[in-house]
Amino acid sequence: MLEEAQNNTAEELDMLREVASVAYAAASDTVSPSTLLVIKLYLPNVPPQTVSSLMTFFLAMALHPTVQHKAQAEIDELLLNQDTALPTFEHKSLLPYIDAISREVLRWRPVVPMGVPHAAIVDDIYEGYFIPKGIPIIPNIWAMTRDESVFGPNPDSFNPERFLKDGSLVDANHTSLAFGFGPRACPGRFFAEDTMWLTMASVLALFDIGKPTITNPDGVQVPADLDPEYTDGSLMRVPHPLPFNCSITPRSAAAEELLEKLQSQD
Ligand code: HEM
After folding, report:
1. Which domain of life is it from (predicted)?
2. Is the pTM of this model over 0.90?
3. Which of ligand 1's atoms lies nearest the C-alpha of 111?
4. Separation of 210 CA from ligand 1 center, angstroms?
5. What is the pLDDT of residues 103-135, one digit of tens each?
């Protein structure tokens, strides 16, 4: 890319710099420190650039062990007859439940809940409302992701099954509302979705994620409550869950061995 850039004019280079800085800002605002730590330590093959959605993923897994175990069972069954220890993109179509989790993470806690304002380019009438040319339009992505006629009942609960029918994804070409709309929809969505998928599949193959434990008055270790608040997600803001504790432990001796091997390659 650098070699190609050397052939560009100064004007083109300025434009490339602007594109790179906008993409960096759009992507880095969503980086989650805890996820980065796990990725840096254990998953050197995943790009160290990921999204705040991955923090929500860790939270959802800690809160929903049944979902987590179902995803791990799908991965284990697949890897049983493969000569690779971790899922790869080649396995994507064979692991629909991971896709369903990724879709549900983006729906349950959309990263930009009030989207990015657009403007009407012509006068329009929508459901009896006159929308004058040039008026700002704010897409309420939060409300859209709570539409029971589209996503089924209990939209506030985390349930990847809403994207599945008989074990298969209901819509193979699904595009999450979380990425916005029209010609200015997020250009990083394919990168973000792939990063999320690979990170989720790798993390679930290697780790158990759970609630933190506390010692109760009888001296017994019990799971603590886990209900972190999110930061402000009003207009154009990217909400994150506030820092929360969860346990992230290797799933088996084999997983631990693989992690050590991966770390020594770093
Ligand atoms: C889960 C991850 C992400 C989500 C949910 C997300 C969501 C969004 C949304 C809602 C918009 C506004 C779209 C609209 O105007 O309707 C947007 C714009 C944008 N995103 Fe993302 N994004 C994510 C990750 C990324 C990544 C990883 C990159 C770059 C590598 C990126 C680059 C951009 C850029 C450059 C824009 C501005 C596009 C334009 O105005 O033409 N995004 N994103």
Report:
1. Eukaryota
2. no
3. 5
4. 30
5. 999 999 998 888 889 999 999 999 999 999 999
